[in-house]
Amino acid sequence: MSTPADQQQTDSDEWTIGRLLTWTTEFFTERGVESPRLEAEVLLAHCRDCQRILLYTAYDEPADDELRSKFRELVKQRAAGTPVAYLVGKREFYSLEFEVTPDVLIPRPETELMVVALLDHAKQRAGGQLRIVDVGTGSGILAICAARHLPHASITAVDVSPKAIDVARRNAEKHTVTERINFMESDLISGLPDDAEFDFIVSNPPYIKTSELAEIDKSVREFEPMMALDGGEQGTTVIEPLIAAAASRLLPGGVLMMEVSPTIFTRVESLVDTSPLERLETINDLEGRPRVVQAQQEAS
Question: 102-296 in CATH: which number?
Answer without folding.
Answer: 3.40.50.150
